[in-house]
Structure formats: structure tokens, C-alpha cells
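Consider this today:
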Amino acid sequence: MTSASDPRDVRTELASLTTEAYRPELAGIDRLPTLEIARLMNGEDATVPAAVAERLPEIAAAIDAVADRMARGGRLIYAGAGTAGRLGVLDASECPPTFSTAPGQVVGLIAGGPDAMVTSVEGAEDSRELAEADLAALDLTADDTVVGISASGRTPYAVGAVTWARARGALTVGLSCNAGSALAAAAEHGIEVVVGPELLTGSTRLKAGTAQKLVLNMLSTITMIRLGKTYGNLMVDVRASNAKLRARSHRIVALATGAEDAAIESALAATDGEVKPAILTLLTGVDAATAAHLLKDAQGHLRAALEAAGS
């Protein structure tokens, strides 16, 4: 595992970053009453959505490109270190229960591997080679998308992942919180959400982390909408793996169809608990097998399957 630059070079580099800037007006924050600190922090957080809003055109362009690749069978792969890596893993882990994504369809890579989710792995974020090895293990293809995530926009692991992936024809997105970042420059789609200096100097788990979470929410959620994983604003591809999600599945079918409880339970039983075909059977009168066939022909888009059935 190779280390990054000379420590003096890193210090100079960090000193130039907005996310690392010192705010002398907050030097006495530790002397303030708790409520006042909470108000200050809340006020800082309130500025993040506006910073994300400034980057919506770039975010939308990246989402359309990701959805196009995933419609061809590609994967969405996040790569980052520290907080940024954890946010990527979190977003990836939520996709199977929310959208019934296939195993490995959305992947979160964090520098240092799974152990880095809960503890610091020395030097992992400084290694481009580690990122390359992690991606090579996935047998990356040109239909895949790699999203590098780094608040500073300079983290070698994230920059290395994007650089290596782009050289192999994969779609690349670079998400950072500093303007003119190396990460955005290395990616086909650069997204730089500039949130400004943090309440605690350099603590990019704060505003920068919030901004990254908001953008990742958009990337995965809107991509899944584009892929037909929803019907309106209903999660019709939800995976009913526990009692709460089974109840949610029932409610989704009820909202989509207006059917009575007994009819909903019967439809869900006939479709092995799958929401989309259950809705299709209730709204069109077709049987479960026909519903499955219609959905397959419509590439999983429920609205298109309903139109094909003449509903």
C-alpha cells in the first residue's frame, strides 16, 4: 500500500481547501450555552440544501447517464474513504430492501474494506492501488458506473478509483465539496457541492457529509425511478423481508389499487408477495402468470405493463 504525498505537501494542499478553512468567529464556541451551539449548528446545516440545489443540473445529467448504463445491466459502484466511503456503503445497502436490486447491482467500496466501516484503517485512503485492486476484483465492465466520493476532492482512493474505472470505459462520477477538485476533473461527471468551512475546522462529516448524503439519495433514488422501480411515488419493488415490509407491501397495493384487504392478500399470495404483479392483477384482472409476463416484456416498468394490458 503506497502512501500519498509528503506530509508537508498534504498540509499545503489541505490549507487551500474550503472544507478545511478555519473560522475565527467560532473560536469561542466551546464557551457558549448548549442551546446556542445547537442553534449555530442547525443554522449551518440549513445552508446545505441550497448548495446542493446549485448543482442539480450536473446531478440530473449524471443520473440519466447512470440509469442508461444500469438499464443495460450495469452496476452502480460507490468508492470512498472514511465518512464518504461509509455513506456510499450505506446507500448501497439500502437498495436491495427498498428497490429489490439484485445482489451486487449496487455496491459500496470503502478504503480498507468492511472493517473500515467502524474503525480507521491506517493509510487506506492514501492508496490509489488499493482502489484499483478493489475495482479489479469486481471485474469492471463498460456498462458499470463508479462514483468516487470525497469531501476534499483529493482523496487518493476516490481519485484512483475514478481514474482507473474511466480508463476502462466505465461511466464515472466524482462527488466532492470543493471547487476545482482533482476528483471532479478525473470523472466524466463532476459534481462539486461547495458547502463552505465546517463548524468544527475540517470535520467534513458535518455539512460536507450531509451534502454527500443528499446527493447519493438523489443518485440512487432517481436512478431507480428511471428504471421503473417505482409506480408514482410508491415503492412497488420493495422486498417484503420482514413484518414491517409485508405490511408496507399491503399498504402500497392498497394505495395503488383501492382494493379491499381480502383481495389484496389474495393477490399478494398469488404473486409470492411481489407488489408489482399483485397491482397488475388487481387493476387488469389478469392472472399472476400473465402479470409476470407483461412485466417482463415491459422491462419491469409497471406503468408500461398496465398500458400493454389495456388498463
The longest strand covers residues 171-176. The chain has a mean pLDDT of 93.
